[in-house]
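Why do we bother with a discrete structure alphabet at all? Because it lets us treat a fold like text: something you can write down, compare, and reason about line by line. To make this less abstract, here is a complete entry for Histidyl-tRNA synthetase. Read it the way you would read a sentence in a foreign language you are learning: slowly, and without expecting to understand everything at once.
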Amino acid sequence: MKYTRLTKEQLEELHQEFTTFLATQSIDKAEWDTIKKEKPEVAEQELDVFSDLIWEGVLTKAEFLEHFSKNHIFLFQCFDTEVKSIVLKALVPEVDFLTKEGVQWLSDNMFTETIEMKVGKKVFTEERNYSLFQLIQQGAFLSDGQLFNQINTIIES
């Protein structure tokens, strides 16, 4: 398995897609129920293959990722061969970007000496989607890129 298996909740949300996936392998509901009962290891393999297909699709479409921690915000724009990053660090220890107040503080203090900002670029050394998956495993999440684009526009002007 290349990524991780989808959670039970994610699989339930993708029930229709999973049914279609099974149908492409000529497996109907009755046969799936039999496989789950009599060959659980085959059922596990099917779930793993389906999970990898879903992850691959999501990661291929991923354009922006964000990761928030207490004093840091990591913003990523993902390209085919590289990822561009903007890292914001609060130099005031009591600021917490995981709270609404912390994000408001960021907005009020964005271009002051209390915020350290670094811009970077990293060429993927591993396969793109796997590199993005690793960022997600570390706590990043898919975003619409609004925050990245706002800050990037200000930096570049």
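What the structure line is telling us, in plain words: Helices lie at 8-13, 15-24, 29-38, 40-61, 100-109, 128-137, 146-156. The radius of gyration is 20 Å.
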